[in-house]
Amino acid sequence: MFENSQESRTNLSELGEFGLIDHLTKDIKIKLPSTIKGVGDDAAVMNYEGKETLVSTDFLIEGVHFDLAYMPLKHLGYKAVIVNLSDIYAMNGTATQVIISIAVSNRFPVEALEEFYAGVQLAAKIYNVDVVGGDTTSSTSGFIISVTALGIAEKEKIAYRSGGKPNDLLVVTGDLGAAYMGLQVLEREKEVFKANPNAQPDLDQYTYLIERQLKPEARKDISEMLRQLDIQPTSMIDISDGLSSEIIHLCKSSKTGMNLFEEKIPLDPAVISVCEEFDIDSTTIALSGGEDYELLFTIPQSDFDKIKGNPNMSIIGHMTEESEGIHLITRANQKLPIIARGWNSLKEED
Amino acid sequence: MFENSQESRTNLSELGEFGLIDHLTKDIKIKLPSTIKGVGDDAAVMNYEGKETLVSTDFLIEGVHFDLAYMPLKHLGYKAVIVNLSDIYAMNGTATQVIISIAVSNRFPVEALEEFYAGVQLAAKIYNVDVVGGDTTSSTSGFIISVTALGIAEKEKIAYRSGGKPNDLLVVTGDLGAAYMGLQVLEREKEVFKANPNAQPDLDQYTYLIERQLKPEARKDISEMLRQLDIQPTSMIDISDGLSSEIIHLCKSSKTGMNLFEEKIPLDPAVISVCEEFDIDSTTIALSGGEDYELLFTIPQSDFDKIKGNPNMSIIGHMTEESEGIHLITRANQKLPIIARGWNSLKEED
């Protein structure tokens, strides 16, 4: 689990920079009619036929966003695509293309980058997007990934963060906190492994949590589902940093307040039991955990009946006037202010 | 010259991640009609009204692509934008938007990032592009920049690398080698400074070279000039890695060979004299130096009269049949094969 045993090992310098990118992208085929020219020129060329174009970009940095001790490279490639597609889906758009740039040191053999690209291509296939650019450069240390995702949307379907109104219902897809608890399990096993490299971890009961961390999925289905339900979200965001941060973003952009109901927050039973095991409050995890890549959106109260009982979506709160502030209403009916997590990941430099 | 003296110093953690990006992007205004929504949502939104969309992305990594010992942060922000716009111009397109993501460690105070963004915004203003996205994240070491540039072009105006034909003339804009020699001068002065921090470098005679390295410009003007001359390039690329690599890219994509004439390569007198001083062959520098951000393109022979004597452009060679190979014809009329530089920048990891 904790090591990639590489059968063969080709040094990057054997291919050279241009040879490497040709090698990694040679199997990439373009499929979508909007993709005119993909990998292999100064810029990719697309044609969106008058629809609005969506563009989003993200960094994934070794030691900050992932740890190769337990993140297989194929999963990393998959996740790098997913986290960016999620941003396009969070605009209620259709993702169409991705561009992947990687910076790597000599530590990585060509075979490792092939694994990474296999994950990229798998995600591109499943989510029906074209990989239209690929740059490689050298890094003095570690593995750095930059992903740019492109998408399209009809103008009137785009869901910005800013359109929420007081009394709008707050809806979240799926369940929360599992990706973060998956990370906690993996971190614990890494310590066990360090202490005893022969230990065989039994992770069966944590499968769901670990999958949510290592192989997250983006909610491509929600945009189509909302269209079928005839619901236009008034505001929308994806949950990358944790529910509390995302709620604050929506409220700040929409100039509203929020009441979030603790008892309504959807948790998988596996999250509840692992939180007990780790002696952590599961609501705190749902609020601050992050990396769930679920969608969080607001809808007018008049759409309540369209969504009631839908197993993919939970109504967890409602917007208020801005002056009322942003609060969690606890199971004990206490009203606690919701505060952003801040920049937890910023570490002191060595 | 070699240090940014920061009068004030605000720690990144005082603002937090979301506070930081708000702070850095608060003065950014969008200007172009194609920009619908810029900074501040999950994705930027653009509308290109049926034109082809161009997208390009690049990494700039501290210790690989720049050295903060002599690169002022404002210049770095400027250059980060320029190198990406150059890719759009190399498609014969019009650059319209850029997205800047940065990863930084705690080593950098907020004021340093403000300097960087001042350079980004200056470039955006001069080149008439909107900054439509800005992500910040933490880095375990150093400063990492990812820039994505977007642009538009009419379908029939796009110049790919692949359209060159045997007998097409090879044209380069401006002059070559100055950026690389500027780097050599700066590297030498850094060593002098290390040995004697009180030394006052006299760099007046190197002004052009140093400017080409620290504050390069992209050839926004060429696309318009070619339009006025009624020239449609058959193939085009920008010179980021050096003339030899770019010629190989054009020939490989166009399935042609090339004869490049040494005596025709445009060199500034400052490059010739500094090459003598450093005892380096100036043709080697022009072939391998890189970072000139000039444009290299091919035109049909029938367009010769349109370009003859134009001070912005030099005819330096012609394409041949692929089977004839890619050669430099020296001043002594020797025929030498042109070989790519390979991955020079890939360093062993510490």
Automatic annotation (TrEMBL), chains A, B:
UniProt domain PurM-like N-terminal: residue ranges: 40-153
| SUPFAM superfamilies linked | PurM C-terminal domain-like, PurM N-terminal domain-like
**List of residues binding Mg(2+) 3:** D42, D87, D238
Record keywords: ATP-binding, Kinase, Magnesium, Metal-binding, Nucleotide-binding, Thiamine biosynthesis, Transferase
Q: Which InterPro entries match?
A: PurM-like_C_sf, PurM-like_N, PurM-like_N_sf, ThiL-like
Positions with a binding annotation for substrate = H65, E291, W343
Per UniProt, where does Mg(2+) 4 bind?
D42, S56, D87
Q: Which residues bind ATP?
A: Y117, G134, D135, R161, S240
Question: Which Gene Ontology molecular function entries are recorded, alphabetically?
Answer: thiamine-phosphate kinase activity
NCBIfam families in alphabetical order:
thiL
Q: HAMAP family, alphabetically?
A: TMP_kinase
A further note on this protein reads: Reaction mechanism of ThiL seems to utilize a direct, inline transfer of the gamma-phosphate of ATP to TMP rather than a phosphorylated enzyme intermediate.
Q: What is this protein called?
A: Thiamine-monophosphate kinase
This protein's encoding gene? thiL
